[in-house]
Write a structure and sequence with these properties.
Layout: E1 4-5, H1 8-30, E2 35-41, H2 45-60, E3 64-70, H3 76-87, E4 94-97, H4 107-113, H5 125-133, H6 141-152, E5 161-165, H7 172-180, E6 189-193, H8 200-204, E7 209-212, E8 230-233, E9 237-241, E10 247-250, H9 255-258, E11 264-265, H10 272-291
Parallel strand pairs: 1-11, 2-3, 2-4, 5-6, 5-7, 7-8, 8-11
Antiparallel strand pairs: 9-10
Helix pairs in contact: 1-10, 2-10, 6-7, 6-10
The structure holds ligand L34.
Ligand L34 binds near residues 96, 270, 274 and 276.
């Protein structure tokens, strides 16, 4: 029997409906409009499309949303100055600087400059530390989206063997940490694989839940998984173009092969990606409520 499809599009739509209600309640009862500023440096087409989607979604939910686009030769000082301006702006509750940044800008310096209260990406060292300690904080969007996908499809994580492929700051490290913590949606036994892992399939075949965030198109095949496993594909790889110039996307999982053996699987596109964007909205609402003393 082929795997159940875990639709990020549908689950994200449900969460956005919940958020829309919350946003209108905040407006009516507290005259509070959550405000998001996204900053894009340069003209990478993939980043442009993600940031555009973030702004469109924010407006659709009734948030205040502003997109700032800077040229690729922007200096670190200029970007720091801009971040500082929005740190001080009371109408801005969330600041997002889209990654990757051009090479003349030190990413860590920028992420550390964003006020932790406005760090809706959850990338500031204070939020990373709080996450690791299991303290309340703004959670990074992609890992939070994965937790929501698992929870809302009723996947049992407690005691489960979870294997994460990839060790990035954005996905691998935080999702591994969240999944072994003593918390709802956690309590799993977690293995992290990476480029130096000796025998990848040995580990991935043991997974009840396999989370792949390696950035290598179609690297996980049916031979890598256990029958019935839940497979979460975080990869968004551009593997070509259609005749009309549209990007052709592939996940890190060879979907057509793995779908025959998995118990449940997220597609690409339409899986984790829409969840990432929706969790940014959730974080912006949370940051606004925190700033207004409502949490
Ligand atoms: N600061 N930088 C910061 N925060 C983030 O959370 C991100 N990320 C990653 C890259 N840089 C970032 C994103 O927003 C990746 N990412 C992201 C977000 C959304 C989607 C993909 C990556 C997405 O919506 N993907 C669609 C397909 C979109 C398309 O056609 O290109 C999907 O259905 O998977």
């Amino acid at each position: 029997m082929p795997a159940t499809l875990i639709s990020g599009v549908h689950i994200a739509a449900t969460i956005r409906d919940e958020l829309r209600v919350e946003v209108s309640r905040l407006k009516n009862e507290h005259n509070l409009s959550p405000g998001l500023v996204t900053i894009l440096v340069g003209d990478d087409p993939a980043s442009q499309s993600y940031v555009r989607a973030k702004n469109t979604t924010a407006r659709d939910l009734g948030l205040h949303s502003q997109q700032i686009t800077l040229s690729a030769d922007t200096s670190e000082t200029e970007l720091l100055q801009l971040v500082h301006t929005y740190n001080l702006d009371p109408l801005t509750h969330g600041i997002l600087v889209q990654l990757p940044l051009p090479s003349q800008i030190n990413e860590a310096n920028i992420l550390s400059a964003i006020s932790p209260e406005k760090d809706v990406d959850g990338f500031h060292p204070v939020n990373v530390g709080r996450l690791m300690l299991g303290e309340p904080c703004l959670l990074p969007c992609t890992p939070q989206g994965i937790l929501e996908l698992l929870q809302r499809t009723h996947v049992e994580t407690s005691g489960a063997e979870v294997v994460v492929v990839g060790r990035s700051n954005i996905v691998g490290k935080p999702i591994a940490n969240l999944m072994f913590q003593k918390r709802v949606g956690g309590n799993a036994t977690v293995t992290v694989c990476h480029t130096r892992t000796r025998d990848m399939a040995f580990h991935t075949k043991r997974a009840d839940i396999l989370i792949v965030a390696a950035g290598v198109a179609k690297m996980i095949t049916a031979d890598h998984i256990k029958e019935g496993a839940v497979v979460i594909d975080v990869g968004v790889n551009r593997i070509g173009q259609t005749a009309s110039g549209k990007a052709v996307l592939a996940g890190d999982v060879d979907f057509d092969d793995v779908v025959k053996k998995a118990g449940a699987i997220t597609p690409v596109p339409g899986g984790v990606g829409p969840m990432t964007i929706t969790m940014l909205m959730k974080n912006t609402v949370q940051a606004a409520k925190q700033a207004a003393g409502l949490l």
